[in-house]
Design goal:
Layout lengths: L1 H30 L4 H18 L7 H6 L13 E18 L5 E14 L2 E10 L6 E5 L13 E5 L7 E4 L6 E5 L43
């Protein structure tokens, strides 16, 4: 029993390491001037492989046996935007509701201001207020719940290895890239064994953003 627990933790570490490498390779490819659509396609292929085969995949064994790939919107050039980071003088501590009717402690660390499809918008960026911490950006847009998960999606969760691209860092992270083509579902969107924090009310956008991952279909796209 103890050996199985250790194996699970090592698998979890390996999964996070692989996710971190995916985002690192993506950022390096974009900074090297590679075509964004090509970079996105390679990223999705690698992510699908993780879901299909890794022991720490969000899918259960039956889902993995029938898995044919995650469902995505096509690459949307307009969904990649520049955001200005407005740091909060004092971070506001709060609790995020989770899919399992529990809560998770968060601190609102910054407001991200951006324009998408000609409309001004903003999202709160959070610090997950647990040991070690991490930056976290959940959101929900008007594609939910029909096309995308009703609890919202994530753009990054640095504890789990997903990351963002810094555009200006002379005096800290003043500008970052928000690429909604990389929006992904929380683990609870795949089956009920997972409990995940959902997008808080202030991070619910009234406009649709048809980019990134769609609702999970079982067994998957043909």
């Amino acid at each position: 029993m103890q050996l199985q627990t250790v194996v699970n933790y090592l698998d979890l570490y390996d999964y996070r390491r692989r996710v971190l490498a995916l985002y690192r390779d993506r950022n390096e490819a974009l900074q090297d001037g590679k075509q964004p659509e090509t970079v996105l396609q390679r990223f999705r292929e690698e992510r699908d492989r993780l879901f299909a085969h890794h022991p720490q995949s969000a899918l259960n064994e039956e889902q993995k046996r029938q898995f044919q790939g995650l469902s995505y919107f096509p690459h949307n050039l307009q969904a990649c935007v520049e955001a200005t980071v407005e740091l909060r003088a004092e971070s506001e501590r709060g609790l995020a509701q989770t899919s399992g009717d529990e809560t998770m402690p968060l601190r609102r660390s910054a407001i991200l201001h951006f324009t998408i499809n000609g409309e001004a918008a903003e999202l709160s960026m959070y610090w997950i207020d647990v040991y070690g911490g991490g930056l976290f950006l959940p959101f929900r847009d008007a594609t939910a719940p029909v096309e995308t998960y009703g609890g919202g999606r994530y753009l990054f969760d640095t504890i789990k290895g997903s990351d963002f691209l810094v555009l200006s860092s002379d005096n800290g992270c003043q500008r970052i890239q928000l690429d909604f083509n990389y929006a992904y579902n929380p683990s609870c969107a795949y089956n009920h064994r997972w409990t995940c924090p959902l997008a808080p009310p202030e991070n619910r956008l009234h406009m649709p953003i048809p980019a990134g991952e769609k609702n999970f279909s079982y067994p998957g796209p043909k």
